Amino acid sequence: MKLIVLGVLCISLLLLIYVVFRKKLGLGWLTVFGAHLALSAVAIYVVNFTGLAAETYIPLNPMTIGTVMVLGLPGVALLIGLKLTIIGS
């Protein structure tokens, strides 16, 4: 089973590399992705340690950072709302 998973991972990595260089995307998209990743983490950090949302702590993990990366600052509001309504109750 591990061999099959490793094979799928290797094939998908090779296909991803092929698509990146075939479409002439270059490495500029990595800069944009990295900037969004860092700004998402900073936004969650600011909410956690400034007390903007009273008694709310949003953990820094791939799911929360990914949500903020995709949705932007409304994603932070979504996470705070979920924390206060579902988990806080």
UniProtKB/TrEMBL annotation:
Membrane among keywords: yes
Keywords of the record: Membrane, Transmembrane, Transmembrane helix
Pfam families associated with the record: BofA (PF07441)
Membrane-spanning parts: 32-53, 65-87
InterPro entries: BofA (IPR010001)
Name of this protein: Pro-sigmaK processing inhibitor BofA
